[in-house]
Design brief:
This protein has about 375 residues and is an alpha+beta fold. The protein is about 35% helix and about 15% strand. Strand 12 (about 285-290) and strand 13 form a beta hairpin. Helix 3 runs parallel beside helix 8.
Length: about 375
């Protein structure tokens, strides 16, 4: 449990890319590729990143880096480009985005609307204790609902696992006790994210998948996807999405471009700003927004999923980075990969590699020979 320091000011808010940037194309039908030289990135730094991954045996399945709107890196280490990959809690950032669209379309009044307005009909003994929970509390994981998701997902005491094994997921979440007043503490809670999906379905009258398809997936050109449903056929708002890595990058690119896509405002710019702003202070390195993780020291915000699934947006460098992995709960050094390699490669810019020619090899050998002869001469003088 984390007692909250709520960030009521926007000095930590990450600036979006300039609204007047003109994109040469939109990757609806596919990404275009670019070279490190064209986007001014140090290729050797990225090569070092892959050596670091290999040396430490990190079970990373794919790495994509979009810079200035083009794919600069697209490496599939254990899967193919057409392999659907589970993205686990990265799903939460998609669910949050759909909430923002539903508010813009008038299905939901605002993030301050109480969740009881949408799911108060659920017949569980503890429903009355949830009357003060708002959509904002679910978005920021400050609902006050008792939840234990900090232990292994294989542990029977993990509330996420208990949710998954229950016959009605919405009822299960709403029937949990309250341990604090809404807004007082932060606790990671995938059940609250699932309630957001139930709210989307109740508010719009269509499935979360149908709403996502019409507003995001089809518009951005997602070619293949799957979204797991609960026993009542409600899409799992906290997990369950499977996507192609290229399509994961599209959500990041949508946010990088202030919610616009091909000159159409898909997500309200204000929502992009609010969702990627640190609402809750968690540590010196981490804040939490609307189902997005904020890392002020990196000037980045991320959608993060179990086992190393990442969509990272770095507005300052006009970068979107995507990782899919199969780490099985082992620690994933994403901060190092971003700070020491991807961001640094952008800061260093393109560095012309030294060409290896026969003359340069001969020169190198001549210098080495001269050094050896000099050392031998010095030894004789002694």
């Amino acid at each position: 449990m984390i007692v909250l320091f709520i960030l009521s000011f926007s000095t930590n808010q990450l600036n979006l890319v300039e609204s007047n940037i003109e994109r040469d194309y939109w990757p609806t039908d596919g990404w275009e590729n670019s070279s490190f030289e064209e986007v001014a990135m140090n290729k050797e730094r990225i090569v070092e990143m892959f050596k670091y991954i290999d040396k430490n045996n990190f079970a990373i399945d794919s790495v994509l880096i979009v810079k200035d709107g083009d794919l600069v890196v697209e490496e599939y280490l254990t899967i193919s480009s057409e392999t659907l990959h589970p993205i686990y809690s990265v799903t939460k950032s998609f669910t949050s985005t759909l909430i923002g669209i539903a508010i813009e379309e008038g299905y939901i009044e605002s993030v301050d609307q109480k969740i009881i307005d949408f799911i108060g009909h659920v017949d569980v003994p503890n429903i009355d204790s949830k009357e003060n929970i708002t959509i904002a509390h679910l978005l920021t994981m400050t609902s006050g609902i008792v939840w234990n998701e900090d232990i292994s997902y294989h542990d029977p005491e993990n509330t996420f696992r208990q949710l998954y094994d229950s016959s009605n997921w919405v009822e299960f979440v709403l029937n949990q006790a309250m341990e604090d007043e809404p807004g007082n503490t932060w606790k990671y809670n995938s059940g609250g994210s699932h309630l957001l999906s139930a709210i989307i379905e109740n508010a719009t009258g269509i499935s979360t998948l149908g709403y996502a398809d019409s507003h995001i997936f089809s518009t951005l050109g997602f070619s293949n996807y799957y979204w797991e449903e609960d026993p009542q056929n409600i899409c799992f708002g906290g997990s369950g999405l499977q996507l192609l890595p290229r399509d994961m990058a599209k959500l990041g690119y949508l946010f990088l471009n202030n919610g616009t896509w091909d000159e159409t405002q898909i997500v309200p710019e204000e929502w992009v700003s609010q969702a990627s702003e640190g609402k809750i202070y968690l540590s010196e390195r981490t804040d939490y927004g609307y189902q997005w993780w904020i890392f002020p020291l990196l000037d980045a915000y991320l959608a993060l999923g179990w086992a190393g699934q990442i969509i990272c947006v770095i507005p300052q460098h006009d970068i979107v980075a995507v990782f899919t992995s199969s780490l099985d709960e082992s620690e994933f050094p994403f901060r190092e990969l971003l700070a020491d390699y991807i961001i640094k490669a952008s800061e260093e810019g393109y560095i012309e590699p030294i060409p290896i020619t026969m003359s340069s090899i001969i020169l190198s050998l001549s210098i080495s020979t001269a050094v050896i002869m000099f050392k031998k001469k010095q030894a004789r003088l002694k």
